[in-house]
Specification:
The chain is of the alpha/beta class. Helix content is 41%, strand content 16%. The structure holds flavin mononucleotide (FMN).
Length: 348
């Protein structure tokens, strides 16, 4: 209620990235003011054993995590855990620091409960994220890695390996991101001829730097892949012994939007997230689960907004669920609402 009023009165009039910075500042307070995160977590974190999920050799206090892209530099994962997220996927982190695309690069489409972004992996680089990941954590922290923009395609593998070596030992799981639409050429890495060798090298690197603990490795795919390509990536994930798939990233499609086409076009290039992604993300989940049986961990993301969506994903075979856009529209108490509704339903 309070957040929704604040959103309508204040946040929605600010440029989207400025609103994001403000929210981020509030979350930083939770991290730096002693005792504040503890207080919030007493209030908001899921404590019900029936919400717990065991996967990837880890214990998740709840099924819903924060998707990659919100905490790109691993700055506020403790605060997000205090708000009730059962895991946080930090990143995308690239081996080298980079500024991302020029602003404006993040937009809200309230009529569609969607966001459009072309951030372009703005982040401080793997070394800086590694420093921050040494902090205390109360939920599993995944690290999503991507390619540095200025690194040529032929050197992409070495670039991912550099990030994996620095971040793997500090990550509860690692996700290779080959599905962002905002780094030129990145999505071409989803072709199995390229993806296979890349994932093999990252796997080897993780085993080299973390010999005592096998770091789970997942790949994150785009919703715009053709069905045959989704099947091919799924088969390859099984063949390579990957631990799972995160499905899916933002879409290039602009189909079925309520926002006026001219307005959408004026915003320019970028990946769309939120409600318009819901059906596609769910369909991909069903397809991949049917193909893998119980063999892979599937993290479903895209258009999840409430407890109904979470339950639907879990019933469709998701091991875990993530969200990002709905958090922007619904605010800091979203997770508490979701957990309450899930518990009430379980009790029934
Ligand atoms: C502003 C913004 C930045 C994002 N940055 C990343 C990123 O760096 N890496 C990544 O894998 N996904 C990124 N994503 C995609 C999300 O992780 C997620 O896959 C997508 O937003 C769909 O979930 P949603 O509908 O709940 O937002 C980003 C999404 C948004 C809205």
């Amino acid at each position: 209620m309070i957040y929704r009023a604040f959103f309508h009165l204040v946040l929605r009039w600010l440029p989207a990235e400025l609103a994001h910075r403000l929210a981020f500042f509030a979350l930083r307070l939770l991290v730096v003011v002693p005792g504040l995160a503890w207080l919030f977590s007493r209030w908001l974190r899921p404590s019900a054993p029936e919400l717990r999920v065991r996967a990837l050799g880890l214990e998740f206090p709840g099924p819903v995590g924060m998707a990659a892209g919100f905490d790109k530099d691993a700055e506020v994962y403790q605060a997000l855990a205090a708000l009730g997220f059962g895991h946080v996927e930090v990143g995308t982190v690239t081996a080298q620091a980079q500024p991302g695309n020029p602003r404006p690069r993040l937009f809200r489409l309230p009529a569609d409960r969607a966001l459009l972004n072309r951030m372009g992996f703005n982040n401080h680089g793997a070394r800086s994220a590694a420093e921050r990941l040494r902090g205390k954590r109360s939920v599993p922290i995944g690290v999503n890695i991507g390619k540095t923009k200025i690194v040529p395609a032929e050197q992409a593998t070495a670039d991912y390996v550099a990030s994996a070596e620095l971040l793997g030992p500090l990550a509860d799981y690692v996700v290779v991101n080959v599905s962002s639409p905002n780094t030129p050429g990145l999505r071409e890495l989803q072709a199995v001829e390229k993806l296979g060798p890349l994932l093999r090298e990252v796997r080897t690197a993780l085993d080299r730097v973390s010999p005592a603990r096998r770091v789970p490795l997942l790949v994150k795919i785009a919703p715009d892949l053709a069905e045959a390509d989704i099947d091919a990536v799924t088969d390859m994930a099984l063949e390579l012994g990957l631990d799972g798939i995160v499905l899916c990233n933002t879409t290039l499609s602009r189909a079925g939007l309520h926002t006026a086409a001219a307005k959408v076009e004026a915003l320019g290039a970028g990946g769309l997230s939120g409600r318009p992604l819901r059906e596609r993300s769910l369909a991909i989940l069903r397809r991949v689960r049917a193909r893998t049986g119980e063999r892979l961990v599937l993290i479903s993301v895209g258009g999840v907004e409430n407890a109904h969506d979470v339950r639907e994903r879990l019933s469709a075979g998701a091991t875990l669920v993530q969200l990002y856009s709905a958090f922007v529209y619904e605010g800091p108490f979203l997770l508490r609402r979701i957990h309450r509704a899930l518990r009430a339903e379980m009790a029934r």
